[in-house]
Amino acid sequence: MTNLSLEDIEFIKILATSDAEIINAGMNDATRQRLDEQVGVILREYYRENTMNSKTGWTEKFLKAGITEDDGKAAIACARRLGIDIS
Fold this sequence. Notes:
mainly alpha; globular
């Protein structure tokens, strides 16, 4: 299982509170790769836990990091608008 670093937490919080168009306009290739390879994996696992009732532990990790359920949903929606496959 992927760990949730401070950088990941901040990235998820930014996704949860930002407009995808603004993020996309300022995103370079390295940031997009990080989003897809690290944060995307975390969001996919979180999504699966909350839709397929798999016990991955991400909901608990998110709550401990101060990421609410609404933040998680908003981050997933933003990531999808950025072209990241979550499902």
